[in-house]
Design goal:
2 domains; 6 strands; Muramoyl-pentapeptide Carboxypeptidase, domain 2; 253 residues; two-stranded antiparallel ribbon; 65% helix; alpha+beta
């Protein structure tokens, strides 16, 4: 009995260490990118990220497949491909929800230590980094050309993490502009159920949407139609107008 308890305890410790190793791997990957960005500039950092992530993903999946006994198909773990479509979508939703929850606990950690204004400042600065990265990632997934225009932006907005969690739509579309609306927001809806006022997310949204759109196509300009603390109709929480402008180099963040 004692030996079995010892084996269980050792297994728990080993499993905890495995989980902690995964966290360290993710953090080290992000720190490499940020250091290259600081040392060599944004353009070099994006190029390095494209090369490093492609090679790293192949190395990691092959080694994990060999260790855990699963095959790869076009670089994707076959157990993922074997999941029923509903289960695969549920997994995607769970990961997106974990992303949003992680964002929330970071905000709360800073807010608890330094107050709301400090948390909002950190939040806005984080979006200035994350939105261009998410755009970069989606561009690669979709194989978008250098300047895909509003149609490219439309496709890219549909693959954001938020698009899995929230309900969004497009309105007032013209050849040179479109309005994007967040009809149902997971965060704001939760606050509404608790009879809390809207979270004033406009400062973060201005950074988030403008940097995302410019990273998709540097000619796109972003205008806020309305976002809390602005008043808004019941049909949506925030709305953004994207206009295809003139030339210019790709924005870097």
């Amino acid at each position: 009995m004692a030996q079995e308890e010892n084996r269980d305890a050792e297994a728990r410790e080993e499993a905890r260490l495995v989980v902690d190793f995964i966290h360290r791997l993710a953090m080290h990957h992000a720190m490499w990118f940020e250091r290259v960005r600081e040392s060599l500039g944004p353009e070099e950092a994006w190029k390095a990220l494209g090369e490093a992530w492609g090679k790293s993903l192949g190395i990691q999946t092959q080694r994990l497949g060999k260790t855990l006994g699963f095959e790869l198909a076009d670089g994707i773990p076959k157990p993922l491909l074997d999941l029923p479509p509903a289960k695969l979508r549920a997994l995607r939703e769970a990961i997106a929800a974990n992303w949003l929850a992680t964002d929330g606990v970071w905000f709360q950690a800073v807010e608890g230590a330094r107050g709301m204004e400090a948390a909002k400042a950190c939040n806005d600065a984080c979006w200035a980094r994350f939105s261009p990265f998410e755009a970069w990632s989606i561009r690669r997934l979709l194989g978008l050309p250098e300047r895909p225009g509003l149609e490219g932006l439309r496709k890219a907005l549909g693959l954001r993490l938020y698009a899995t969690l929230n309900r969004q739509s497009f309105a007032e579309e013209t050849p040179s502009s479109l309005v994007f609306r967040m009809d149902d927001c997971r965060v704001q809806s939760a606050r509404k159920r608790k009879n809390l006022p809207d979270y004033p997310c406009k400062s973060g949204g201005l950074v988030e949407y403008a940097s995302f759109a410019e990273a998709i196509d540097p000619r796109i300009r972003t205008e806020c139609v309305g976002c809390p603390p602005d008043a808004h109709p019941a049909e949506w929480y925030c709305a953004w107008k994207f206009t295809l402008g003139g030339g210019g180099e790709r924005a870097v963040f």
